[in-house]
Amino acid sequence: MPDYDVKVKFHLFPYRKFKISAKDEKEAREIANDQAQHVIDTLDFSITDIKAKRYLMDKFL
Predict the structure, then answer these.
(1) Which residues contact 48 (CB under 8 A, 6 or more apart)?
(2) Nearest to 51 by CA among 7, 20, 18
(3) For residue 42, what is the DSSP state?
(4) What is the per-residue pLDDT across 30-42, written as a single tens digit (0 to 9) for each?
(5) Rounded to whole angstroms, how far apart are CA atoms 3 and 31?
(6) How many CA atoms lie less than 13 Å away from 53 in the CB half-sphere?
(7) What's the predicted TM-score (pTM) here?
(8) How far apart are CA 14 and CA 5, in angstroms?
């Protein structure tokens, strides 16, 4: 099965700032971690190019 060379473009803008209200540092870290995970889960991207890598058949024989 061939490997692929893939070019991916991540759409990171608009830049977002978060204001967090917390009672202590631990709660602030938990809220910030939840916000960061949400940004990762909803990150928009597009695949700009995909190609199968070429192999010489002699390598497999």
Answers:
(1) 7, 8, 9
(2) 7
(3) T
(4) 999 998 898 888 8
(5) 39
(6) 8
(7) 0.55
(8) 28
